[in-house]
Specification:
Layout: H1 2-8, H2 11-38, H3 41-47, H4 57-109, H5 111-119, H6 124-129, H7 131-156, H8 162-176, H9 179-187, H10 196-210, H11 212-219, H12 225-245, H13 248-259
Helix pairs in contact: 2-4, 4-5, 4-7, 5-7, 7-8, 10-11
Length: 260
């Protein structure tokens, strides 16, 4: 729900929220300064002072003179920070676009491989039996998924606008429509290479494009004893490795390396 509310907030308001607050405080300080300089009775009423007490307007004038100057510096720094963040976001997304262009060029130079991934030009069983080809298709699929995972994260962080992200959705829809990708995602351990939220995105895409029945058929394909043993061994290794990466031992090792 918070993400939905965040998406409805105009981008300019997200970026300029802090400067707007600073400007409001600055304006209030200027008003109070003018009241102090003119020794206006309204200031006494605002501060609810007794009738027999008077403010030291000379001191107030000094204080209210310092506040706008300090806020002006803070405001200038905030505006510069907003501009720097915006520039950094643009550069980050440009790098993602450059990587996608590089992938397009790779597919032009390797048309047969790209057609296997996108157009199912070869059946999965034939690709699986060719170790080299199986590996090449796997790496190609992972390249596409890695780029889309970055796009999803940038969308969540507000770096990519909704209209731009729609082009990525169309691209990943084509991938989810591929029978080859359906098999790789569920049978070749591709799914386990990505975090839970991204897995759910792809799972939902495959469910929409192929339907629940087709997904069950792929998942329930018979495996040899050797394949089952290899899968169980790989799952055990993944669990042990994840435990190590999340343990204090891992952080101690990385800190020791960083100090050398």
């Amino acid at each position: 729900m918070l993400d939905t509310i965040k998406d409805k907030i105009p981008d300019f308001l997200k970026e300029w929220a802090v400067p707007i607050v600073f400007f409001a405080i600055l304006l209030l300080s200027v008003v109070l300064l003018l009241l102090a300089i003119t020794e206006h009775a309204a200031l006494d009423r605002i501060l609810r002072l007794p009738a027999d007490e008077k403010l030291d307007y000379a001191t107030l004038t000094t204080i209210f003179g310092i506040i706008p100057a300090a806020l002006s510096i803070a405001l200038s720094s905030s505006i510069a920070s907003v501009s720097e963040r915006k520039s950094a976001r643009q550069e980050t997304y440009q790098r993602l676009e450059f990587e996608s262009i590089a992938l397009f060029r790779f597919e032009i130079d390797n048309t047969a491989l790209a057609r296997i991934t996108w157009d199912d030009s070869e059946p999965y069983e034939k690709v699986k039996d060719d170790d080299n080809l199986h590996y090449q298709v796997l790496q190609h699929i992972c390249q596409v998924l890695n780029l889309f995972e970055m796009a999803v994260r940038f969308k969540k962080d507000g770096i990519i606008h909704n209209d731009v992200f729609c082009s990525w959705i169309a691209w990943i829809y084509d991938l989810c429509s591929s029978e080859m990708f359906l098999h790789y995602w569920y049978l070749d351990g591709v799914k386990e290479n990505y975090i839970g939220p991204f897995q759910k995105v792809i799972d939902e895409g495959l469910l929409i494009t192929h339907g629940e029945t087709a997904i069950k058929e792929v998942k329930n394909q018979p495996q040899s004893d050797a394949q089952k043993a290899a899968a169980e061994k790989d799952e055990y290794k993944r669990e042990e490795f994840n435990k190590y990466m999340n343990s204090s031992c891992y952080y101690k090792v990385t800190q020791a390396v960083a100090r050398t």
